[in-house]
Model the fold of this input.
Amino acid sequence: MNKMTTVKKSIITAVCIALCVVLPQAFHAIPNAGSIYLPMHIPVLLCGLICGWQYGLLCGLVGPLFSSLITGMPPMAYLPPMMVECAVYGLIAGLMMKLVHTSKVYADLYISLVVAMFAGRVIAGIAKALIFMPGQFGIAMWTTSYFVTALPGIVIQLAVLPTLVFALMKARLIPTRYTNEA
Done:
């Protein structure tokens, strides 16, 4: 796989951070759409999958912060747990793409994506239970908010992200992972 330059990774990260601000605005016209469709998670996961863990982590921290400062969403009270969750998504997506090599692009992408999505939800749940909402946040609330309510967003992420990354490889906008695919 050819490596991307730091400049290209930085530009992609900046675009993903901008999408963290813009994409949720398109969904917030629908009541409760942020917690249902998870629009901010898409650019963070995308950044981690394409650029690596350092850039995914940065996008996961800065994206929600900029969105909150510019648009007021997420609200300041919900910003810290959202930053933790998104930071873990970007970090783990990038680490998994570095570690997983099945010789199949889609397999690598799905494994990395599923592990990142699960890790982000677990770490965010632990952070809420121990730091942000001690004594108020339990397993039932975690399951409901991170899996049941978020199911449409989870499905969208699983359907869109691997195909998008593969299409970017096929178009040669990002380096191909394996020479025989893309």
The radius of gyration is 16 Å. The mean pLDDT is 94. Helices lie at 6-27, 33-37, 41-51, 53-71, 79-99, 105-132, 139-148, 151-170.
